Structure formats: C-alpha cells, structure tokens
Amino acid sequence: MQADIGVVGLGVMGSNIALNIADHGYRVAVYNHHVERVQQFLAQAGPDQAFVGCESYAELAAALGRPRIVLLMVTAGSVVDLVIEQLLPHLEPGDILIDGGNSFYQDTERRLAQLAERGIRFVGMGISGGEEGARHGPSIMPGGDPEAWPHIREIFRAIAARAEDGEPCCRWVGRGGAGHYVKMVHNGIEYGDMQLIAEAWDLMHRGLGLEMDALAEIFARWNQGVLSSYLIEITADILRLRDPDGTPRVLRILDAAGQKGTGRWTVIEALQLGVPLTLIGEAVFARALSARKAERLRAAEILGEDPPPPFAGDREAALDAIHDALYAAKIVSYAQGFMQMREASRAHDWDLAFGDIALLWRAGCIIRSRFLNDIAAAFERDPGLHNLLLDDFFAQAVRDAQGGWRRTLALGIERRIPLPALGAALAFFDGYRSAVLPANLLQAQRDYFGAHTYRRSDREGSFHTHWTGDGREERVDD
C-alpha cells in the first residue's frame, strides 16, 4: 500500500507534523538525512499510525502514490535547495513539492519558477504554532502553484488547528510566494506583540514595583478580556515559575533576546515597499539593543542607570492605563502588518484575502488572539479597507484607549523605563490621523540642498526655488 504523503526532515517540527498527519488516518513515508533518525522515529510511533520508513530519496519516491506529495521540513535557505536538487531526479511532472519551513518568499518564487519548468508543482507553506502546534494543530498558510491545492487541501485542513467555530485554520493564500510572505508578516506581528508585552511587564515590575506573583495574576486577568491571546496566556505562566531557591525563573534569564531573521525580513520588505512599519521595526531594534549586553553594562556605569524612586501614585489607575496602552498598541501592530500585506498584494498581484488571513490566525499560531475575529469582521464589512484604524470598531477602540496610552508613555518617561514599541505605536497613530505633517519643511530642505523639487498645496506641478539666490520659484516639468 502506497503512502499518501512523504515528509523529509524529522527534526522537532517534521516529526510532530508527520505524527499529526498519521493521526488523521493518512499513510506517511518519512525520510531524514541521518537515516538512523528514521528508525528512532518509527520506534516512537503509535500502533495505529501508518508510516513507511525510507533510507533514500529513491525509496521515498517509490513509496508514494501519484501524484507524489512531498513535504520538506528542513532548515530554510541553502538546505532546501540541496534537498530539492537531490529529490528532483526521482520525481516526475505533476508531482507536488511543499516547503513547510520559514523560507524567504523570494526564494519560494525562484523555486516555484524553476520547478514549473520541470512540471513540478511547488507550494511555499507557512506553518505557525511551534512544536505543540505541529503535533496537535498548527495554523497553515499555503501559497504557490494553485494546481497543487486540490491535491493537498484535505490533508492540511485535516491537521490544522480549529477555531472556536470549528473552521480549520488552513486556507489557500495565493500565488507565488504569498504563503511564506503572510507567514513572514505573521512573525513580524509576533515580534511586535512580544515586545509590547515585555514593555508593559517591565513598566509594571520596575516602574510600579510589582512582584511576579501579582504580575502573573494581572496577565491572567487581562487574558479574560480584550487582550485575550496565546502570548498573554503564556506570559502569566512564565511569571509563575520559580527556580528551586524560589527566585522567579524569568529574572534569572539573561536579558539578551535572539532572533532568527523573519522579523528583520518583515522590516526590510516594509522599507522596500515604503510602508511605515514603525512598531515592528522598533521591536526588531529592541532585540538588537538587548543583545548588546556587555556594552549596556558599560554604558550603565558611564551614563548612570538612575533608577526611579518608589512609586507613590495610584497603582490601580496606572494598571488600567497600561492595559489600555497595550490594547491600542496591539491594534496598531496588526494595522501596520495588514498595511504591509496590502501593499505586497498590490505589488505582486497576489489578490490576498485579508479577512481570510485573520481567520487563519485565530488558532494554532503564536499570535492567535480573540480580536482576530474583530479583524475578520472589519474586512467583511469593507473588503477594500485600507487600514484597520479606519474601521469604526477599531477607531473607537483606539480613541477610547488613547488617554491611558498617553499616560502610560508619560509614566515610562517619568520612571525611566524605555517603551520603544508602545511609543512608536502612539507616534504612528498621531501621525496617521494628522491632516498636517512637517514634511513640507523636509521637501523645502531637499530642494534647498539638492534641487529635488517640491509640489505646492495650492496648485499643480513640480517647483524649484532658487534658495541661495533671489528666492525666485520656477515650475519644473515632471
């Protein structure tokens, strides 16, 4: 009996997704570069799971029914290209290759074009949810060759997480590199969410003097309301854990954050598209600053840390303000992420369905949260919505929260607690809703030193002023 799908790569994610597929009644052929891992994996499989162990790509191809479906769960980058090169001689036109790693979307588009010449249908599939999601139900974002979707649809919708309404968190995203692009933006929003939560925690801990038990209860309470999300939930869990000597584990973890690149990719792409992805950018830079631990220790000696005095204000009022700031900034984070996807969809002719993307993220993924239903509803009301902040629901939510948001930023400045992402979100909000910005002075400066020209607010055309001469203005053809 031939297998329904092959899985290449039996690391944590590959093993768990293979087990998940088998749990749903599919026969799975498995292969790993280190072949001893195949036998180790098979030894751990349950009696009701149907697996075929393979020790070569030729065996893998022979074990699969037609069209062959092969899911690559290997490290993004050159490893994907190497595996494709080694697997390709054993495939034939009509077969389907799926990259389930965190690949850069431009690599996906390159591979798609190259494999299409050989008649191979290629899919770039974003998968979110980590180890637990892969095993029990991730959020899945497939894109690439649309002819592949009917052949793989049932398998991946079967293993995906289910939202509260029972809908699988797996939908076709679009052509080309759309699936991996959407996963990239998901990860960028994840960077933003994590930084916002960390800033709120820092302000409450160092700024207000709250201890971990109290903070764990605050996050657990917040998780029952509009901030309900996986990241808020796990933050409460993290703050409760103690080392054997009673010290909160989080306080023993070195404050130097790592990153694997997807957040940086998101920001670089935003710069290429001209999207003001300010909050996520600050989240990426905050990680980069944290990683300079030795340099920060030296700066603390030279510049002085200047810790704040004990907090003597209304703590409950401050906590309410921080809650509102976190909620409003979270809305901005998603608004910026969807702005970026809108621009990318236009630039690449992907025709992304933004409401569907919000629905994809309701369960299984790292940024799953209650208000993704509100985002989906916003795009259902207006499929052409340019920005979430222009939707009545989110506009009112941010207006209601802005008082606490501003007080939170003032508290951070007063208490010497850096709040780069919360501050960037508020600056974006104020800039986005401002009918007048100081860019007119910027344009005058550009024209002064570089004759870059400018447009006027009172008539059409491009103009240049002879700033160092008689101040004469002349119209310049576009």
Structure report:
- By secondary structure, the protein is α/β, with parallel strands linked by helices.
- The chain is built from 19 helices and eleven strands.
- The strands form two sheets. An eight-stranded mixed sheet has the order 3-2-1-4-5-6-7-8, with helices on both faces.
- Helix 4 links the parallel strand 4 (69-72) and strand 5.
- Helix 1 packs parallel to helix 6 (130-136).
- The chain is globular, with a radius of gyration of 26 Å.
Q: Determine the fraction of residues in helical runs and give it as a percent range.
A: 40-55%
Instruction: Name the shape in a single word.
Output: globular
Q: How many H/I helical runs?
A: 19
End-to-end separation in angstroms reads 68 Å
Number of strand elements: 11
* Unreliable parts: none
* Rg calc: 26 Å
Strand order of the largest sheet: 3-2-1-4-5-6-7-8
Element string (H = helix, E = strand): EHEHEHEHEHEHEHEHHHHHHHHHHHHEEE
Secondary-structure-based class equals alpha/beta
Q: Give a short account of the largest sheet.
A: 8 strands, mixed
Beta-strand percent range? 5-15%
Mean pLDDT: 95
How would you summarize what this structure contains?
53% of the residues lie in helices and 9% in strands.
Topology:
Elements: E1 5-8, H1 12-23, E2 28-31, H2 36-44, E3 51-53, H3 57-63, E4 69-72, H4 78-87, E5 96-99, H5 105-116, E6 121-128, H6 130-136, E7 139-144, H7 149-159, E8 174-175, H8 178-207, H9 212-222, H10 230-240, H11 262-273, H12 278-290, H13 293-303, H14 315-348, H15 354-360, H16 372-381, H17 392-414, H18 420-432, H19 439-450, E9 454-455, E10 462-465, E11 473-476
Helix pairs in contact: 1-6, 1-7, 8-11, 8-12, 8-14, 9-10, 11-12, 12-18, 14-17, 14-18, 15-16
